[in-house]
Specification:
Length: 146
């Protein structure tokens, strides 16, 4: 495809009612920029979600670096827990990798601790408090030990 016709790919995450909290969390801890949040209230989809969901997110986004993460809240009867993928972050600084790993893991679950690996200064896996799986890779900004 020609340069300006190349499609852009963005992850689209489903949440069980906490999309806004997740995107604000990513904005804060990943240095992101919150995009427009479209709420269910007043839209043709308002009658397809619980009555108390008018303030929940039908569609929203948060920009992290050059990437845009999109997502929305999905009613309980349609929500499926994320599986078969992970959001992957490549971080240059080991101190940033350690901080971001701990921030994302707070209230979530560490799958593999952030440690030195044969391919990276640091690598770790976690599921954040919103149920989203993450891989953290750090190339390192200096020689590391251990």
């Amino acid at each position: 495809m020609a340069g300006d016709q190349t499609p852009q790919m963005n992850p689209y995450l489903s949440f069980k009612g906490d999309c806004e909290a997740a995107f604000r969390f990513y904005e804060r801890y990943l240095g992101g920029q919150l995009g427009t949040l479209f709420r269910y209230g007043g839209t043709p989809l308002a009658d397809q979600v619980p009555a108390d969901w008018s303030d929940k997110i039908m569609h929203g986004s948060v920009r992290v670096g050059d990437q845009v993460i999109m997502g929305g809240d999905v009613a309980a009867d349609l929500y499926q827990e994320p599986q078969g993928f992970a959001m992957s972050l490549y971080i240059k600084s080991t101190s940033d990798a350690e901080r971001i790993f701990q921030d994302l893991a707070s209230g979530g679950r560490i799958v593999m601790p952030l440690e030195k690996s044969f391919w990276a200064a640091r690598f770790g896996m976690l599921v954040d408090r919103f149920g989203i799986p993450w891989l953290i890779n750090c190339e390192g900004d200096q020689p590391t030990e251990g």
